[in-house]
Amino acid sequence: TQGYKAHFSDDFSWLHYGQGNPLNLDEGVLIGNWNLAQKNYGWISDTLEGKDNAYVYGKAGYVQLGNDTVGANLLTPVQTGVQNDSLIAVTFNAVAFVSAGGQKDGNYLTVKVIGGTFGDGGDEKTIELNYIDYASALIETKMWGDSWYNLVVHKLPGDPYSTTIQLEFIGGDAEATSSNRVFLDNISIFSQQQYEPQQTDN
What is the pTM of this model? Predict the structure, then answer.
């Protein structure tokens, strides 16, 4: 992504809940309880049917999707100004939860794109994530080992000059799933390739 124009980038450095250890689940704060300045960053999470809250948690510089009893999704703010892009790069760090006793959650993350498609023509892609290194003495930093992803998004074939794009991250395989806790950080949207002017013969 070096040299690409960034449409959007967020490392959640403005979240300061707890000390950063992903095993300390009681340190997270629900997105609905973030302060006004944090809410103004524009992140959105849906309250699932039958639930009272959206279960995205702010941590220390990253976010957690879901808990042991309910799943969660997270949507970026809608990004404008992508009308000249033909290819868009989406990058992020994501890793799945393991308890202090070594019990693993599900480890799927589904990424949906609104206003574009992936290379196979679909608007969603499910990734099987690696797990945090729960036994590491340096878990706050080691948890992000081998967690970086880079997805290429194409504009919609029927609307190649659409002006907006939005991403949705879902903890689970296509739908928000309990005990499929995912940690997310460093989410970025880049312009990878712009449309070239059509050449005409004289």
Answer: 0.93
